[in-house]
Amino acid sequence: MKLVTIDDVRAAAERIRPNVVRTPLLAARWGDRERPLWIKPENLQPIGAFKVRGAFNAIGAVRENSDGRDAVTDVVAYSSGNHAQAVAYAAAAFGLRAHIVMPEETPEVKVAATRGLGARVVLCAAGQREAVAEQTAHDTGGVMIPPFDHPDVIAGQGTAGLEIAEDLPSVRNVLIPVSGGGLASGIGTAIRALCPAAKIFGVEPELAADTAEGLRLGHRVDWPVGDRNRTIADGLRSQPSELTFAHLQQVLDGMITVSEAEIRSAVRELVHRAHLVAEPSGAVALAAYRQGVTPPGDTVLILSGGNVEPQMLRQILAD
Known about the structure:
- The longest helix has 17 residues, at about 150-165.
- About 55% of the residues are buried.
- β4 (about 95-105), α4 (about 110-115) and β5 (about 120-125) form a beta-alpha-beta unit.
- This protein is α/β, with parallel strands linked by helices.
- The protein is built from 13 helices and 10 strands.
- It has 2 domains: about 5-50 and about 150-319, Rossmann fold (3-Layer(aba) Sandwich); about 55-145, Rossmann fold, CATH 3.40.50.1100.
- The strands form 2 sheets. Strands 1-2-10-7-8-9 form a 6-stranded mixed sheet, with helices on both faces. The chain has a 4-stranded parallel sheet with strand order 5-4-3-6, with helices on both faces.
- The mean pLDDT is about 95.
- The termini are far apart.
- Keywords: Lyase, Pyridoxal phosphate.
- Its cofactor is pyridoxal 5'-phosphate.
């Protein structure tokens, strides 16, 4: 299996540069003294999450490779929310039609945002989004832009790691939320190549810790959808593909799992101490940092997204 390289990530950075925010590293001076804390706030992207990086790289690559009678007019994606918005946003920027398949339990704020970007939303039952998306692609002739299982998507997400390496060469720990594994695969590839002394940790909710179990056993494991859907971190309910799992085996130094209470506490801490809004999925890296299990040294956490329903945010802040 061919894995994404640092050259792929660098090419992606050039491709997406006009459309994606180069997010800063924010010094969190309230972090632990022995583990200086830095936040990579991907909630500041145009659609509120890191997914825009992979979407622009994948769609941009498709556009570069098609022309004339074969020119792409439609794209299809399946997502619980942030990838949906990213593909809708990127498709609109390129003048393409987007058809987005979303599970019925997706937070309404993400469904509305996707429609607001001009996409056609197709709702489906839990566990059916891949099959419904394949049928939608067949019906529309659209090109599939998967949320993580594609080299161009992984390379696009990896551009965040390229920025970390450029801004903080001394980084010793990087904490990355893991769901389908595209973000950790891409960032891990960049950090492993450019900052070889750094330790790279994936973070999962305890209630959706299939990647942690799979890496411990040496092969992918399948957790029932109903089990994974228990976590408040709705963006972390997917499972790695063969492609992303192979990357994770190569780039991660370990996995850290966090409880629902720790996730909620991290959301509150980011609001009150960093003045940043994070969805539960985006806050898990801070929850892992607070466990104190990573080595000393400069530590970067990826705040992967901030698309949280207002009612949920109010509830968490009131806890």
